[in-house]
Write a structure and sequence with these properties.
There is one protein chain. The protein is of the alpha/beta class and about 240 residues long. It is built from 8 helices and 9 strands. The protein has a 9-stranded mixed beta sheet with strand order 3-2-1-4-5-6-7-8-9, with helices on both faces. A hairpin with a 2-residue loop joins strand 8 and strand 9. Helix 1 packs parallel to helix 8, helix 6 crosses helix 7 and helix 7 crosses helix 8. The protein is globular, with a radius of gyration of 17 Å. The termini are close together.
Length: about 240
């Protein structure tokens, strides 16, 4: 950080997520973004989710949908625990021309014809990626070919979370083999999306945000594996703050 940094210079991430069944996922993403260096985090969600946030983490600013257009954010994170989702909010984020992370339930709402103009990172696990390919009509070809084609169709960075992490951006492909199954814990993906969202909000470009986010997430997982063996996503978030 610069000696002259303060909350507004470190970026403002606006999160769309959470629902009646899932209130933990957007909270993990929001806290992860803070620990990754974000100066401000706002969460747009259902009232039941926001009430929990107000009671447990007042540093996260709650926003109801009708007021979301007043938020002066630098980047979006859309999807953690979103359940049914809201295409109207996705369209608003796309029209803003600000960088976006699409995670979890938001990925189900992406359709053929969407174009993210090199301003978005998608972070699907393998099941979500299969759904995305089906929605886009990309169902033939080998894994590498399909990854590049999906990236080119959407003009976006694709981060596929499997036993290794695959990152596709147009004709480029990167692989991170962390050999670390300890990261296979509930909420780990929400932590990763929060890290990438924080990097985007700080002004880092989409590919660097994805690559650096994956490296930090994996590095923190290795540290905790060696120190604790098994751990929770809350432990992972704290480690992000220590290593950021």
């Amino acid at each position: 950080f610069s000696l002259f940094d303060y909350k507004n210079t470190r970026g403002h991430l606006l999160v769309f997520g959470g629902g009646g069944r899932y209130h933990g996922a957007p909270l993990l993403s929001s806290l992860s973004a803070f620990h990754a260096g974000c100066g401000l985090v706002s969460l747009c969600s259902e009232k039941s989710v926001l009430d929990r946030v107000y009671n447990s983490h007042p540093s996260i600013m709650g926003v109801e949908k009708e007021n979301v257009y007043k938020v002066k954010n630098n980047a979006f994170l859309i999807g953690p625990g979103w359940d049914e989702g809201d295409r109207e909010l996705i369209d608003y984020a796309m029209e803003s021309r600000k960088p976006i992370v699409f995670d979890a339930d938001a990925i189900k709402l992406i359709v053929k014809g969407d174009d993210f103009s090199h301003m978005a990172v998608l972070t699907p696990h393998l099941g979500e990626y299969r759904t995305l390919c089906r929605n886009l009509g990309v169902e033939d070809g080998d894994f590498m070919d399909k990854g590049r084609r999906v990236s080119e169709m959407l003009n976006a960075v694709i981060v596929i979370k499997t036993s290794v992490v695959w990152i596709f951006y147009k004709e480029k492909a990167f692989v991170y083999d962390g050999s670390n199954p300890s990261l296979g814990v509930a909420g780990s993906g929400d932590v990763l999306s929060g890290i990438i969202g924080a990097f985007l909000a700080s002004g880092m470009d989409v590919l660097d945000s994805a690559i650096n986010g994956v490296i930090l997430h994996q590095r923190c997982g290795k540290t905790l594996r060696d120190k604790l063996g098994f751990y929770t996503s809350e432990d992972l978030i704290e480690e992000v703050g220590r290593q950021r």
